[in-house]
Amino acid sequence: MLDKNKVEKFIAAAMVYEGDLYSQPRRMDKGYSDCSSIPYKALRDTGMLDESQTKRTISTKFMRDGDPRMYQIPMAKLERGDLLWWQKPGIDYYYGHTGIYLGNGKVLEAIKPRAKVTSIKRLPWQRAYRIKSLESSGKVTPPAKPKVEPKVGPYVPIIVRGKTVKAAILIDNVSYITVKGANVSVRDFFETLGMTVTWKDRKIYVD
Question: pLDDT tens for residues 124-143?
């Protein structure tokens, strides 16, 4: 259950960034934001940024592959303070876009040229996420994810330091490899080894 006081503090902090110029390279500079930096900065500014499991900034690519600070909820359970997520269909290398749901069909999102409040109908949002630190204190059991058959896509080549070594399978537009009989996110697997993962021309490059 969301703590309404925490939600209101979070949204008030996020609204400070309304009007920021859109920029990914300068997203952490004063006067600039991109879509995922706004919830990150709002949580940071209110002291509700949980860094116990990861110190990474919030990013749509990590939301897609799994961010321990949040969990997916059914769209029907969307509440003020939750995050919305969208990815352009058929574009595997584009990690998506996010916005903060304000209630009453309104969303705070950073889009060119400036961050602003928009209608939830502006995009066909595909997922909703709840931020764990905005929930009431005490042990909270996240609801089960909606039972939807995963969309399994084609195999994608993995090129490690110039050599094709393995192919990843796309499941709901997330790339996986099989490690000891289990599907593991390509990004998580290689980044734990200190390597960098990038997408280009429908291939995965690891350096």
Answer: 999 999 999 999 873 434 44
